[in-house]
Amino acid sequence: MDIKRWMTVLPTVEHLRPARCPCCDAAGRPVDGPLVMRGHGLRERQVYGPRAAGGAPQQVTVQARRYRCSACRAVLLVVPRGLLPRRRYAAAAIGWVLARIGLDGATTPAVRTEVCCSTILGVAAAERWLAPSRWIEASRRGQLFPRLGRHGAQSPRAQVAERTAMQLVALSPRGRAGDRAAHLAFRGAALAA
Ligand SMILES: [Zn+2]
What we know:
This protein is of the alpha+beta class. The chain folds into two domains: about 5-80, no CATH class; about 90-190, no CATH class. The protein is built from eight helices and three strands; from the N terminus they run H-H-E-E-E-H-H-H-H-H-H. The protein has a three-stranded antiparallel β-sheet. A hairpin with a 5-residue loop joins strand 2 (about 60-70) and strand 3. The protein is globular and about 55 Å long. It binds zinc ion. Zinc ion binds next to loops.
């Protein structure tokens, strides 16, 4: 379920209950026994970035649902589609940034104003924005988008950004003729998360 629908009506515990525990593979709701994946409360999660490609930057808070596995005691967080583990920016916004830097040759400060809303910018304007370098390094290791592979340890960052962006463009549903690469990377990244 995408963020928009999730924020309109928070999905129920039952609706989001994982079919299996990702840690021990126990069935979440066995046919013949008590529940295994049990609701374990809510956790607020910040999500940064525009909701639409080229749109105004936003900062929203979503309620992620937690589940606890009664077999192995693992706690699992279920979030809306389009978010990546441990990243505050939505996957689509990260795809946008990589395409703007890697394909359009845009500078980091310019791209920052496109995805970062003014409240965040206001606090951190004087600091260098390190997030894109971290994303590029994670992509190099194959740890940014789970569906994409890794890149060479020696490849320059600009090249890793470019190749990652091209992979995201390739995943995008076909847009209108003349769509900019960053728009396609935005949509491809939402699907790659
Ligand atoms: Zn488990």
